[in-house]
Specification:
The structure is a homodimer of 120-residue chains. By secondary structure, chain A is α+β, with helices and mostly antiparallel strands. Chain A has a domain of 79 residues: Winged helix-like DNA-binding domain superfamily/Winged helix DNA-binding domain (Arc Repressor Mutant, subunit A), CATH 1.10.10.10. Helices cover 50% and strands 17% of the residues of chain A. The first copy, chain A, contains 4 helices and 4 strands. In chain A, the strands form 2 sheets. A two-stranded antiparallel sheet of chain A has the order 1-2. In chain A, strands 3-4 form a two-stranded antiparallel sheet. In chain A, strand 3 and strand 4 form a beta hairpin. In chain A, helix 1 crosses helix 3, helix 1 packs across helix 4 and helix 2 crosses helix 3. Chain A is elongated. Chains A and B meet through strand 1 and helix 4 of A and strand 1 and helix 4 of B. Strand 1 of chain A pairs antiparallel with strand 1 of chain B, so a sheet runs across the interface.
Chain lengths: 120, 120
């Protein structure tokens, strides 16, 4: 981080946001869980999703366990065995969480950028 | 956290959000820094603000140091000595940060609530 050394006239970094949404007591979605769901969808496997994200398997498992414990039902299903070993797939609820978070996130980003631009 | 034990028919917890906004490389505002600025404004003192928030003086000092290192100038000024000892006060920029964050935060909360309600 070298922000303090910025010289006058250099253009500022674009405004960004970190957002976690609490949907219910003990049930939240943030960038880590949503990226994990997206990678499970892309790879069909929790361990491959974790690898792509540079996340430990233990952490990925903990995040997924939380995502599958909400009152709306699980976000993923798992299949055991088969020729390629077990796999993981998203439920409709899992897909809904991704769409919901990415939708809110993009709105928050444009909102933040325009408010910051107007205020500073 | 007892979310997993919710019984059917119980009303859900209200939707909440955690938001941190990155204004520049290495310069961000989130709930901790903004609450600190508000308490400095209310108490006129960094140590009293930290006490009100249950924050260590060291942590409060670190957050304030970051808030005073942005390219827009400091968020607070300090006065040394005087009959009541040194004090801290907000600059115009400090007040602007509070208004900006609280404004974006309340927009994000209502946006999240309506999107969650529509999706789940």
């Amino acid at each position: 981080m070298t922000s303090h050394g910025r010289r006058k006239g250099e253009s500022p970094a674009p405004v960004g946001a970190f957002l976690r949404i609490h949907l219910d007591t003990g049930f939240s979605i943030g960038p880590g869980k949503i990226a994990l769901l997206e990678q499970i969808d892309a790879t069909g496997s929790l361990s491959q999703a974790a690898r792509v994200l540079g996340m430990s398997y233990r952490r990925a498992w903990t995040l997924l366990d939380a995502l599958n414990s909400g009152r709306w039902g699980p976000a993923t299903t798992t299949s055991v065995g088969g020729s390629g070993g077990g796999g993981a797939a998203l439920t409709d609820f899992g897909r809904k969480l991704i769409r919901l978070y990415r939708d809110i996130e993009s709105n928050v980003l444009s909102l933040s950028r325009s408010k910051v631009k107007a205020a500073l």
